[in-house]
Amino acid sequence: MFGAICPKVGKAAGLVLPYCNTAAMSLHLAEISAAVVPGAHAVLLLDQAGWHLSEKLEVPPNITLIPLPPKCPELNPVENTRQFMRDN
C-alpha cells in the first residue's frame, strides 16, 4: 500500500499494488503528481527504503523528495505503528 496526504487540505492519493519496488513507487509518485493542485508543489517525507530513493525512480517535476534520517520514529509516526504491531 502506498499513500500520501496533504495535511493542509486533507487531500490524499494512494495505490494498492502487488509489489513495493521502484516501478510501483514511480506509479505512486505519478498518482500524487496528478492530485497536486496546478501551480502547487508537493514535498514528500520518506524513509530510506531502497525504492524511495532509487536513481531509477521517476520523480515528477512538481514533487520534491526529502529522505528522513534512518531510525527516527519521532519524525515518522508509521515507525511507531510498526513497532506496536511487532510488540503485540
Question: Can you describe what's shown?
Answer:
This protein has 88 residues and is of the alpha+beta class. It has one domain (2-87). It contains three helices and four strands, in the order ββαβαβα. A two-stranded antiparallel sheet has the order 1-2. A two-stranded parallel ribbon has the order 3-4.
Walk me through the topology.
Blueprint: E1 2-5, E2 12-15, H1 22-35, E3 42-46, H2 50-53, E4 63-67, H3 77-87
Parallel strand pairs: 3-4
Antiparallel strand pairs: 1-2
Organism: Siccirubricoccus deserti
Domain Tc1-like transposase DDE: 1-86
Pfam families: DDE_3
**Low-pLDDT residue spans:** none
Number of helices: 3
Q: What Rg do the Cα atoms give?
A: 14 Å
Mean pLDDT rating = 86
Helical percentage? 25-40%
Order of the strands making up the biggest sheet: 1-2
| Helix-strand string | EEHEHEH
- Characterize the overall form: globular
User: In terms of quaternary structure, what is this?
Assistant: single chain
Q: How many distinct beta strands?
A: 4
State which percent range the strand residues make up: 15-25%
* Main pleated sheet: 2 strands, antiparallel
User: How many structural domains does the protein architecture include?
Assistant: 1
Distance between the termini: 21 Å
Backbone structural class? alpha+beta
Give a brief outline of the structure.
InterPro entries: Tc1-like_DDE_dom. It holds the Pfam family DDE_3. It is built from three helices and four strands; from the N terminus they run E-E-H-E-H-E-H.
Characteristic key phrases:
globular, Tc1-like_DDE_dom, Transposase, alpha+beta, 20% strand, 88 residues
